[in-house]
Amino acid sequence: MALTKVRGSGVTSGITISGADLDGAVTINESSADVDFRVEGNGNTHLIHADAGVDRVGINSGATDLNAGNYAVLNVGGVVNNAGQQAIFCTGSKTGYGGASHYLWQNVLAVGDSTSQAADTGGALVFTGNYQSGEDQVHGGTIEVAKRNSTEGNYGFNMVGRTREHGNATMQIGFLFGYDRVQFFTAGTHRFNIDGAGNLTASDTSIGSLSDERLKTNIQDHTYPLDTFKKFDVKSFDWKQPTEHGDRSNQKGLIAQEVEKVDPSFVYEYELGDTSKDREYIPTSQVSKKFTDDMDGKEKTEVRDVKLAKASKLNQKDAMYISVIQQLMAKVETLEAKVTALESK
Fold first, then answer.
1. Cystine design at 78: which of 42, 91, 150, 248 (Cβ 3.0–4.6 Å)?
2. How far apart are CA 62 and CA 143, in angstroms?
3. CB within 8 A of 167, min separation 6: which ones?
4. Cα separation of 244 and 281, whole Å?
5. Nearest by Cα to 81 from 69, 99, 63
6. Which residues pair with 268 in a beta bridge?
7. What is the pairing mode between strands 122-129 and 88-90?
8. CA gap 171, 165 in Å, rounded
9. Per-residue model confidence as pLDDT tens digits over 41-84
10. How many Cα atoms sit within 13 Å of 167 on the Cβ side?
11. Are 201 and 195 in contact (CB under 8 A)?
12. CA separation (Å) from 153 to 35, 111, 122, 144, 186?
């Protein structure tokens, strides 16, 4: 027996078909009535829930209306108020991602592949779009996670982002994130690299600063005070946790707290990551930030516990220049003193 169509509403006693073979098309609610469709699980009343009134689908979303203000077109995992109107929304119970755990896949949206171990294979999120009226969709961009090698049992992966210059162009890599490297590309050319030791390499080592005169006001000449410059104190040091700093020792540089006393504009704070071994030396502080909620337009305050370390904008190369210039300044001052003494005779 083949069941090809279920129509109408108001069936109170239910329909039971033993041994049905549904080998044809099935249409449910062809009249477009405001009636829902749901499938129960073993203990879950709304394992699959199609809400006809708002044209949304829920999977394991609970006994609730999938109203347009709170849920996506496809809602997976549970009930979250003001979740927005995304195409797909997933909820989960994972609250912390700081630790290295393969269990992080639980309760999230996962995209992947089931192929055997082979280099450059993996899963991808694909973004599409038309580049010409009447044409089919083309890949506009992808975010891929690809296996690094073909060694069985080796779970190394790289995340790669690609985009397309125009409709007929070949997809070009934009970035690569890996365990031991970060790479950025423009116009199909590798421009910037961070290796596993933290070394930065770029095709152009000069960093531009927005300097258009039309964007500025109160423009005045400025001379940095020599007396202030002489107060910078260059040091050599070792890191307490060398693995956090490229396994480097006998470093040359400046101490952020000392720089801050001389010129605070060269010092800022940054948040240490959850997995940083440096965290044990930094006390926990609480920061708050006001923001306007996109969903209800109300101003709210976010409060977080963080580990904030001080950083100096003066690096190891700056330390070398400062040391040399200070030595030259001392020599000039000595020569000036001798010239003054000779002139006074």
1. 91
2. 31
3. 131, 132, 135, 138
4. 13
5. 69
6. 311
7. unpaired
8. 7
9. 888 888 888 888 888 888 877 666 676 555 566 776 655 554 45
10. 9
11. yes
12. 50, 20, 15, 20, 34
Token readout for 274 is 């959850």
Q: 13 is written with which tokens?
A: 């006693």
Pair of tokens at residue 232: 């910078």
Contact between 86 and 72 (Cβ < 8 Å): yes
At 230, the pLDDT band (50, 70, 90 cuts) reads very high
Contact 151, 182 (CB under 8 A): no
- pTM of the predicted model over 0.90: no
Per the DSSP assignment, residues forming a β-bridge with 267 are: 312
Q: Cα–chain-centroid distance for residue 197?
A: 21
Q: If DSSP states are collapsed to H, E and C, what string results for the chain?
A: CCCCEECCCCCCCCCCCCCCCCCCCCEECCCCCCCCEEECCCCCCCCEEEECCCCEEEECCCCCCCCCCCCCCEEECCCCCCCCCCCEEECCCCCCCCCCCHHHHCCCCCCCCCCCCCCCCEEEEEEEECCCCCCCCEEEEEEEEEECCCCCCCCCEEEEEEECCCCCCCCEEEEEEECCEEEEEECCEEEEEEECCCCEEECCCCCCCCCCHHHCCCCCCCCCCHHHHCCCCCEEECCCCHHHHCCCCCEEECCHHHHHHHCHHHEEEEECCCCCHHHHHCCEEEEEEEEECCCCCCEEEEEEEEEEEEEECCCHHHHHHHHHHHHHHHHHHHHHHHHHHHHCC
What is d(CA 104, CA 98) in angstroms, rounded to the nearest whole number?
A: 10
